[in-house]
Amino acid sequence: MDEALDRRVRLFVFERAAETGTVPVLEEIAAGVGASPGAVAASLQRLAAGKVIALAPATTNIWMAHPFSAVPTDFRVEARGRTYFGNCIWDGLGVLALLDADGTLQTHCPDCAEPLRLTVRDRRLADEAGVIHFAVPAARWWDNIGFT
User: Is residue 49 domain-shared with residue 79, that is, in the same domain?
Assistant: First the structure.
């Protein structure tokens, strides 16, 4: 186990996601931290086992680096002149909190498909109307993080 490499990989992934709105791929991470792709792949596996990130099934491709999604989702975040994606409404708001930025989260009601827009200004929701529902208790999110 290489804890120093794991820290560098983790920091690189989250810094790159925050700076660019995209989650880096294995080769980019390896170049960014100065390690071999094999060493980085092993580090990503360890980070996934520790629930720091989630990998796409049967790959070393990052799927989720919470709160960032590596793939477009229904939780589009606009902040700092960039577009980010969260994995759920919680992560979408988490992107804005992590960035410490004003911005908007656009999604839709899962029941009626009505568009929803949440605006954050000065670390607060601009409109407090509405309800956020979590179908799975937080203690069970990692039972199936892709569904949650």
Answer: no
